[in-house]
Amino acid sequence: MKYNPNEIEAKWQKYWAENQTFAAVNNSEKPKHYVLDMFPYPSGAGLHVGHPLGYIASDVYARYKRHQGFNVLHPMGYDSFGLPAEQYAIQTGQRPEDTTSVNIDGGFDKEGNKIAGYRKQLDKIGFSFDWAREVRTSNPDYYKHTQWIFIQLFNSWYNKDNDKAEDISTLVALFEVNGNAAVNAVCDDKIAPFTSSEWNAYAKEQQQKILLQYRLTYLAETEVNWCPGLGTVLANDEIVNGVSERGGFTVVRKKMTQWSMRISAYAERLLQGLNDIDWSESIKESQRNWIGKSVGAMVSFKVKSESSEVNGEQHYIDVFTTRPDTIFGVTFMTLAPEHELVAQITTPEQKAAVEAYIEKTAKRSERERMADVKTISGVFTGAYAEHPFTKEAIPVWIGDYVLAGYGTGAVMAVPCGDERDYAFANFFKGHPEASGGMPEIKNIFDKDISEAAFGAKEGFQIVNSDFLNGMGYKEGTKKAIAELEALGQGKGKINYRLRDAVFSRQRYWGEPFPVYYVNGLPQMIDAQYLPIILPEVEKYLPTEDGLPPLGNAEVWAWDTAKNEVVNTDLVDHKTIFPLELNTMPGWAGSSFYWMRYMDPQNENEFASKEALAYWESVDLYIGGNEHATGHLLYSRFWNKFLKDKGFAPTEEPFKKLINQGMILGTSAISYQLMCTDNLTIFVSKEVIDKGEDYTKSKINEYYKNRNLSIPELIKISISFSPIHADVSMVNSSDELDTERFKAWREYYKDADFICDDNGKYIVGREVEKMSKSKYNVVTPDDICNEYGADTLRLYEMFLGPLEQAKPWNTAGISGVFGFLKKLCRLYFDEHNLIVTDEVPTKDNLKTLHKTIKKVADDIENFSFNTSVSQFMICVNELSTQGCHSRAILEPLAIVISPYAPHIAEELWSLLGHEGSIATVPFPVFEPKHLIESSKEYPVSFNGKMRFTIELPLDLTKDQIEEIIMKDERTIKQLEGRTPNKVIIVPGKIINLVG
């Protein structure tokens, strides 16, 4: 019999599908265990070998838990809405739903290229997914529930007294009885107070406008990252170095009316919840920093500019500070360039400079501004604010290091206690652009600040600060807040950096909002009429007048009489109204998908109470750490909201989180000679590595052999342009197939190669991110076709610790494949099964139970790479022992099954068993087989070891001495002498002295 992985794996993958081997049930006597992967976005590029790493790890764990007797839910689906599919549709003229479907199920693209399809690729690797529970976020039967959750958010407010979300009707009831004076809610700032009688007298439209200021999802004018090239708003994590991650287009800051989610209401709960979950400290710290809790005070500074009073209204600059004790050190103030007061308080003399600076700042993303701590820039507005205690005039600046969305968009600058303020003040002191708006730094510490700011919170006394003199940080903070409250210009406050999440996208390929507009006010479509399905459009670009792509739809209006979507031309603003033109962001569908897996066929609700109560939450979640402050934060927010509303059974969605490291590609680099002629010349890395003189000689030789003049540029200096070559054109010796390379691209067809002395062109190697653009992608399909999925699974686990990045090296695959063939040889030879019923030896049992313990411990500790090492040790030992005992090999097949399930199934079947190995109980480790009953002692004479002897460990010193003295080898060594001393340490040494 021969190990044929392709035949074996196809057989068992078919068996699993036909028998629904991995189907989970929603009610079982077995204990439950929910193992989840972050589901993929299905791009046309398909999977490379880096993608399955986390999936293989979770699959090993899920299979192990089934062996342990758990009812395991291990589902898979697709995060199938998103900008890439839309951009591809724009470029190729295809429907995004069609390209997305092909990317998942396989088929052909518009150019006729065959797309393998994610599903076929995943099946080929042998994952134990319950495919009956598959979800796709772009399917109407899925996003129907996304739309329903949006409606629940719209119809809710956050009651700070109860610290939870409540139905909006409870807020209306409070307004009707008491107005809003006593309402303790998370809401917009500066809501005008009203009484119950005023509320009851308001027109319905006015009441709706007020309620929008309290709802958990609301419309507001917001500073966003606008990308004109893509025609949409981008999230911070979709921007790299100030341009869009997709396409590299310019991104600017722009004010737009957007839907937002009031995630800030959950800031404290999101922070405290981190204490209750088993996540890595680095991910927790990322979320803590993103939430950014600060304890301090809110201070109001009166604006003194002549233009600060409009219609008699006095303007104030509100500042949140964590150091109210430094209030007397305020030297200047800085507003975000986007701050709403800037235009109102800027003096005519400074208007041009301020407007120019604002325009310049709009081209930088928030992330870029936050990261740039070295550049100092700003403009004086010409306006002043009044110090609350001294009444001194404080100059007001704008600077791009202050962000409108963080805090109040304003800072009180205390240069003596803050390095950034210190650098800003010193940079502009006496600077022509300061226009006299940068006074001397005020020092309020009994410390020298001539060289740097003093930022410590201890080890100082406050000076030059009136009633705060002589105090420290804690006492000074408390006193400053009390005095500010007495003045009516401040109060103690806890602040969070976490901002409400913009929820609108000017895209087509996303969830439609279940919203229509009456007189400009949003109305929710009744849940019974969901889903509101994406309409057909001719093009996926914004309209000519700048509306989102849905503005191109001919059928996109809501008929309130028929309760259906109708032709846009029928809008009469009486019974037929316009629908929302924006769509939801990519994170909408991924913020509750783990609950949909619990009950995916339920048409009426996203999951039944029974299913939610049974599965509760995810026991193990595996995915990339790039989602730390995106998906993982938003999903926790939605889970907490659904818990408040009585749907989600737990406060946190994911009990344990593991972030798998990245598998890096080994790129192949060819070196193009930079010269002034029209030749395309590549020089071997082997040549370059021998030094400049040798390289010059080889280049001179090349030109001489062709009777060509050497370009002047090369005579002066030799330089190369590194060009990525497709790794498939390079062999294991790093030799490039130059003919394939020339045929690869039209512009390389006439290329020449300066090779090494053996006539070979050797490429350079560079370990970097595996990606299509670097031509270093290795597909799992190729590995599976040549070596089998079990080899791929074992090799990926063997590469190194799950959470670390590691380079891919295809050369190592053959060793793992050889191991599997060696494993098979324990069970069958070229002709027949060779397993016997012989009683296992002590060594056989020791090897098996050592492996059972090691593998079980490793899986529980997610140390998968060391399990693979133990399998290799085990098979080597059993081979050396000549073991073919059924009592050893049956449990061994079970132990290896989570890692190499196909060969395990085949061996189990060959051993005469019916059905799948998948739920056979995991072997029980028996410690007795690892307890040593004897010891091989080194026997020494005067400290020099002469021979060894194996003796039972339970012998006494006297018994050991008696045996040693009667041994023929001892008698020969002593030659009739009697030793002066016999040193015996039971279990360790025997030494005869003299």
From TrEMBL:
Keyword ATP-binding: yes
A GO term from the CC aspect: cytosol
Motif 'KMSKS' region: chain residues: 769-773
Keyword Ligase: yes
Family annotation (SUPFAM superfamilies): Anticodon-binding domain of a subclass of class I aminoacyl-tRNA synthetases, Nucleotidylyl transferase, ValRS/IleRS/LeuRS editing domain
Name of this protein: Leucine--tRNA ligase
Originating species: Flavobacterium hiemivividum
GO molecular function terms attached to this record: aminoacyl-tRNA deacylase activity; ATP binding; leucine-tRNA ligase activity
Domain Leucyl-tRNA synthetase editing as annotated: residue spans: 288-484
Enzyme nomenclature, EC number: 6.1.1.4
